[in-house]
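Q: Please design a sequence for this.
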């Protein structure tokens, strides 16, 4: 049926992509509680430790996209996403660049975790692993254009990074200021990333209404990945009381 419909104009298509922002994880109750200063120190620590699993996945996801992309010009632009996260060692007198993964570990230390608490992945919940692995596998198995499209949740990322930069010093004054450097770093990187991602998506998927609807479904898949990550972190870091009974989030099982 959709094949008879004309494709949306480039502007309309971009608007439809941006309208998907209504499902962005900034509206997830866990992130709303974070913004409102309602998270405990333990919940913030759990979020940082769990989200580390997503952060270390990004370069692998981007390398999967590169491995599927035959276009040298696209690869020359996309590859910077890997060094943004892995960093660059100082060579020939050039200064080293700290990457996002190291900055995230410093965020962990700023919220009171040890480097080992974060890098050991011992605090990462099964649901977070499942959602992040689904994102990496998507990038490995789908076309590079579809995986580029899935990265477009970053259309909405500067807003959530700015929220943290603006609210944490007031809401969580115990967090060391340097912990925010990751979010400040991403503000510019995300805006640059999205320019390329949007251009590829608007070009590749605008051949038909059916393809444009497919792009919206791909973006929804990634929105679901981010939402599922927040769901899992919220469950792993919140004491559950149901009908007056406390359910420990880490069940204490005494094997007699
Ligand atoms: O720190 C984030 C990041 O580096 C990326 C890369 C991009 C992608 O390729 O999917 N998405 C993304 C995101 C990052 N941070 C998330 C957050 O809430 O801190 C948001 C997330 C995104 O919007 O996709």
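A: Design:
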């Amino acid at each position: 049926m959709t094949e008879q419909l004309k494709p949306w104009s480039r502007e309309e298509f971009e608007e439809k992509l941006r309208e998907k922002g209504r499902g962005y994880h900034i509206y997830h109750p866990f992130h709303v509680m974070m913004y409102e200063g309602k998270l405990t120190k333990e919940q913030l620590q759990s979020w940082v430790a769990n989200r580390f699993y997503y952060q270390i996945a990004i370069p692998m996801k981007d390398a999967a996209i590169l491995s599927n992309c035959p276009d040298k010009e696209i690869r020359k632009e996309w590859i910077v996403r890997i060094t943004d996260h892995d960093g660059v060692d100082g060579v020939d007198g050039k200064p080293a660049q700290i990457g996002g993964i190291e900055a995230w570990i410093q965020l962990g230390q700023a919220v009171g975790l040890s480097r080992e608490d974060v890098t050991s992945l011992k605090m990462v919940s099964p649901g977070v692993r499942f959602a992040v692995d689904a994102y990496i596998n998507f990038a490995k198995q789908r076309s590079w254009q579809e995986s580029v499209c899935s990265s477009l949740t970053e259309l909405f990322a500067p807003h959530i990074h700015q929220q943290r930069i603006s609210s944490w010093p007031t809401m969580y004054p115990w967090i060391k200021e340097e912990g925010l450097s990751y979010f400040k770093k991403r503000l510019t990187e995300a805006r640059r990333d999205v320019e390329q991602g949007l251009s590829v998506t608007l070009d590749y998927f605008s051949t038909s209404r059916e393809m444009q609807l497919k792009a919206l479904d791909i973006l929804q898949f990634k929105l679901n990945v981010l939402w599922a990550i927040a769901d899992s972190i919220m469950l792993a870091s919140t004491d559950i009381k149901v009908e007056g009974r406390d359910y420990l989030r880490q069940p204490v099982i005494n094997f007699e």
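Q: Thanks. Anything notable?
A: Residues 209-237 form the longest helix (29 residues). Residues 9-88+97-238 form a domain with the Heme Oxygenase; Chain A fold (CATH 1.20.910.10).
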